[in-house]
Amino acid sequence: MNNSDTPVTVIGLGLMGQALARAFLKAGHPTTVWNRTTSKADQLVADGARSAPTIADALKAGSLTIVCVTDYQAMHELLGASEVELDGTMLINLTSGDSTQAREAAHWAEQRGARYLDGAIMAIPSTVGTAEAVILHSGPRSDFEAHKSTLGALGTTTYLGADPGLASLYDVAGLAMMWSVLNAWLQGTALLATAGVDAAAYAPFAQQIATGVAEWLPGYAEQIDRGSFPPEVSALETDARAMAHLIEESEAVGVNAELPKLIKAMADRSIAAGHGGQQYPVLIEEFSKPHDD
Ligand SMILES: NC(=O)c1ccc[n+]([C@@H]2O[C@H](COP(=O)([O-])OP(=O)(O)OC[C@H]3O[C@@H](n4cnc5c(N)ncnc54)[C@H](OP(=O)(O)O)[C@@H]3O)[C@@H](O)[C@H]2O)c1
Fold this sequence. Notes:
Elements: E1 8-11, H1 15-26, E2 31-34, H2 42-46, E3 50-51, H3 55-61, E4 64-67, H4 72-79, E5 90-93, H5 99-111, E6 115-122, E7 134-138, H6 141-151, E8 156-159, H7 166-193, H8 199-214, H9 217-226, H10 236-252, H11 258-275, H12 284-287
Parallel strand pairs: 1-2, 1-4, 2-3, 4-5, 5-6, 7-8
Antiparallel strand pairs: 6-7
Helix pairs in contact: 7-8, 10-11
The chain binds NADP nicotinamide-adenine-dinucleotide phosphate.
């Protein structure tokens, strides 16, 4: 569907907001922009955007308004002023935050008569406007469907569900995965460096392992959803012995052992609770509750 005539507004022209506005312009949308520091609109105006003199004016110009500022506090400061009329507007907040902030913002927008979708950008500015930029959305499905095609100008748009907190939750879940994979790789890289192995030599091997482990996820997810963890591959106590080995090896060659010790401590607690004969994903029980230091 060609909807490039749909007028859009972008509020917040930092690195990400500028990239979002550029992507809309490139897709042919009449694009209105507003930023606290007005000079950040100059290049976009030269490229065809219209700079709104006030936020109120910016909100009236677009069929939808993207908000992308530093944090939710900034968003509330900007849009919370009594003279800003939100009634009848469609807000899509791509500012990063947590799920509580997103749910509160959805409630706040509803009270002000605005439609509201929350979003999370899993991309860097240079990829915005390409399929590589994954942008997550949550909130009322009808609002997402109504604007899906326009939002498609920004990247690969994904709808997660009606709970407005979902986009933020998926965002941090993705970060947890990213850092865990990178940290595990760095641990192995440091270990191998003690034997003179370059990071580049280990990287393809590590990549193969990460890809192989990723393939276990759907089956392990079924175990978690069923709440049953038969040891089809290995029992947690077998894994825990390998963890001890990793700790000993790290300490013996003078490499940081904090991370494997942390993982082993969780496994030990699960074993002490009687789960040693079950499969690794039984650790979800440790991950699902707070840990008192
Ligand atoms: N950059 C990335 O790679 C990336 C990736 C994913 C998600 N994000 C998210 O996108 C959002 C924006 O990031 P960014 O990289 O564009 O940040 P940025 O370059 O630091 O820009 C911040 C923007 O917020 C505005 N702002 C901050 N406080 C304000 C206030 N009190 N009142 C009015 N405007 C205010 C700034 O206005 P001024 O120009 O007037 O200071 C500017 O437009 C963040 O939530 C970030 O986490 C960024």
